[in-house]
């Protein structure tokens, strides 16, 4: 059985069910630490993941993973639905919180497509010609950061509704 850090495939399957493959983070007993949560939500081992198997050629898609990356699919591949094929599409970031961080209105955030189990996204290495958007870096390989928003700390003395009163109202 494949391991993902300290998580096995069955635990990853449970997490997929809980999160619905969304980018929202669900705090659970399986997420033992922020680092593990970050690794878990950026998971994409599509060539070996049973949930990525499809009636495709090659026989898998990078779309059916926790952090999808359709740019990893073969442009010349054949797929039963277009969403399984090659395109510039996929998970773009992850935000992780725990009980303490949520009350501080802070998070651990990682920008860009996943690169833990797969090569980082690089505009210059795409197998098809796609112009790089203005001001984009070529290589998307950023380390996680911890936000620090000290003015928005929620404590028993400052309740969240009070903080929301100071935020600008939308038009």
TrEMBL record:
Q: Which UniProt keywords apply?
A: Glycoprotein, Hydrolase, Lipid degradation, Lipid metabolism, Signal
UniProt keyword Translocase, yes or no: no
Cite the InterPro entries for this sequence.
PLipase_B-like (IPR007000)
Q: Name one Pfam family in it.
A: Phospholip_B
- Entry GO terms, CC: extracellular region
Top-level class of the enzyme under EC nomenclature: hydrolase
Query: GO BP, one example?
Result: phospholipid catabolic process
Is-annotated flag, keyword Transport? no
PANTHER family registered for this protein in UniProt? PHOSPHOLIPASE B-LIKE 2-RELATED (PTHR12370:SF3), PHOSPHOLIPASE B-RELATED (PTHR12370)
User: What is the recorded function of this protein according to its Swiss-Prot or TrEMBL entry?
Assistant: Putative phospholipase.
State what protein this is by name.
Phospholipase B-like
Q: Where does this protein come from, organism-wise?
A: Opisthorchis viverrini
């Amino acid at each position: 059985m494949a391991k993902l850090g300290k998580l096995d495939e069955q635990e990853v399957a449970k997490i997929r069910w809980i999160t619905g493959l969304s980018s929202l983070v669900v705090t659970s007993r399986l997420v033992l630490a922020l680092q593990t949560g970050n690794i878990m939500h950026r998971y994409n081992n599509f060539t070996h993941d049973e949930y990525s198997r499809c009636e495709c050629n090659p026989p898998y898609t990078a779309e059916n993973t926790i952090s999808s990356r359709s740019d990893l699919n073969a442009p010349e591949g054949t797929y039963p639905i277009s969403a399984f094929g090659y395109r510039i599409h996929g998970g773009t970031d992850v935000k992780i919180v725990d009980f303490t961080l949520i009350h501080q209105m802070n998070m651990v955030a990682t920008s860009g497509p996943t690169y833990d189990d797969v090569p980082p996204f690089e505009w210059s290495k795409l197998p098809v010609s796609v112009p790089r958007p203005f001001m984009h870096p070529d290589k998307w390989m950023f380390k996680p950061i911890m936000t620090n928003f000290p003015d928005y700390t929620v404590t028993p003395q400052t309740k969240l509704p009070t903080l929301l009163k100071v935020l600008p109202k939308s038009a």
